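re: that chain from earlier
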Amino acid sequence: MDPEKKINEVTLKSIAQEAGLSVSAVSKALHNKPDISLETITQVHKIGKKLGYRPNIIARSLRTGKTNIVGVIIPDNCNPYNALVLKGVEETLQNLGYTAIMGNSKENPEIEEKLLTSMVSLKVDGILIIPITLQNFINVNIPYVFMSRSPYLVSTVPGLDHKAINFVVNDDRYGEYLAARHLIEQGHKNIYLLVGNDNYNTIEGGMNRARIAGYCQALKEANIPFDPSKIRYGVVDILQSSNATKEILKTEKPPYAFCVTSDYSAFGVISVLSQSGLHIPNEAAIVGYDDIEIASHTNPGLTTIRQEKYSIGSRSAELLISLIKGESEANQIILKPTLVVRSTT
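^ sequence. v structure.
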């Protein structure tokens, strides 16, 4: 016997009695089968809603092998960048008839591994993730798509084919190149880069390496010597960017210029510069990265590199569903960022 029919037999019978239909016809109508008229489908759904009918997802998954549920893992859902990616994911999944369950990895590989294991155990159809380390994906045997981060320059991991990894990302090298080139065009030569970790063994580290390469390319084209002391690592939030800026102000005199690899961190730089009485942008110029919504509403408005955050989430969701349905093979999508000039340069 169909496990879903067994579990919901009483409710289906109730609907059938009120609609004057067979239980079989009601079941087909609830699943919008093409051999049932639109009038009957509408009637059955209306009665089902009135009676409080709810399909049993677990039972359905036993019958179909699908849950229509997608696992979504991001580092921090309070981060404005991640929130916009998540918005693109959720709205697209809903339009495609899927539900999302979410977890925060907190940039911790062990938490990421536990979340992946839990979601696979819950029989999600696939996973969308802003990833931390490739090692955690060696035994993931359901479709998954990396969002925002791809395995740039990450050491080869036995058991994983990098060419088969699906991702939708921003062109990080080009983005940071645009940021540094813009500051150079404004006449700056003393340009700092505030970035996260550069660990080759993490996907974020590889992404940051790509951004460093873009920064260096802009300097090289302008014949500005590269100074490794101008790169400050481990800057991933407002507190860390504030501390890094304070240290820089102690060792050098203005003018300054800052490439900051997230708008979120850039606000820490702006705060310290303003408190120090430095004029922005005459004595200190800043280019952020991401173009989160508040970047256009601050005073001064933040010049930044715009990533299509909603599109990253939306296109990742579309790609994953096509993989789940067997309609697509490995796909690696790289989106071009753009420079948005405001008052900090």
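Residues 76 and 104 are 5 Å apart (CA to CA).
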